[in-house]
Structure formats: structure tokens, C-alpha cells
């Protein structure tokens, strides 16, 4: 059902917390700085990112502040992915670039490399997708990845996304031009898989 996405975002009384069997998506906190620094300073995590790895803890402090301010402006939802057992930050999952007219947004995600291969990123992304489609009334969610990132590609395909093409040399990471592969998922495809 169509609705004003910006009005729905503005009406949120607080940062939404989503809880699954193994992970929680919650608001960023000051005590997440070290966990987020470990995440975004890891060259393995950042290998296919559109920016270089963090080099100082101050960058992680700034990241937490940016995440909070983006929510205050309702420009993005930058969830911290936390382990349900100890609530420590192990990743991030973001809905951003909201387009109210076309009921569209983008999703991004990252997970500590020591935890890869356990399905935790899939769990986190699935919760964010479900929330975006059901709560915000999004019609389409897009993801944009480096096509060499086979693990991310497999995650998106597993969740029902379709590859919609490669944009050649779209980003520079340092001095290297990299391609970008666009994926899309429609609300009816998501709901059809969840029945």
C-alpha cells in the first residue's frame, strides 16, 4: 500500500530495534566505537568497500556520530548488528537513500570477518529488508556491490535479489577504478518468499 516513507520515518518514536534468533539490529552507541573500529579497519571487510579501511579510532567515533545524526535527520537507518548473547557490535546494516516518490531505498551491510560463513549477515539483512518492506512500505530495495565480492553476491541471491547489471568503473577505491553490480528486490518478491 502506498504511503509517505518520509512521514513514516518521521513518525518513528525512537531508533527501531529488530531482534532475531542470533542477532539484534539496534541503534549505535558510544560503547560500540571499538567494535565498529575493528569492523571498518579490517582490510578483509573493506576490500570491496567504496572507501579505504579506517586508520584511527577517531574515525570510528565520527562514524557513530554520523550514524546517530543521519537517523535524527531520518536520512538513513544505520543499525549496529549486535550478537544477541552479549550485545557487542559485530557488524552494521543500513537502509539509506530513501526515495519517497518511487518507494525505494538501498541497503548496505558489513560483518566482522571472523564471523563470516555463519549466516549472521543474512539474518541481519533479512530483518532489515522485512522491516523496510512492512514498516516503511517500500516497493523496492537495491544493493550495490563490487561484482568480485562473491560472498555478498551469494547472500543477495539467497535473499531473492536479482542482478540487474554491472556499471563499469563506477567507484574509485584509492587509485583503482572498480565496477559496481546493481541488485534489486521487489516487495511482492520478498512477501512471496516469506509465505
Automatic annotation (TrEMBL):
GO terms for molecular function: protein N-terminal-serine acetyltransferase activity; protein-N-terminal-alanine acetyltransferase activity. It comes from the Bacteria. Residues 23-185 form the N-acetyltransferase domain. Keywords: Transferase. One of its GO terms (cellular component) is cytoplasm. This is GNAT family N-acetyltransferase. It comes from Luteimonas viscosa.
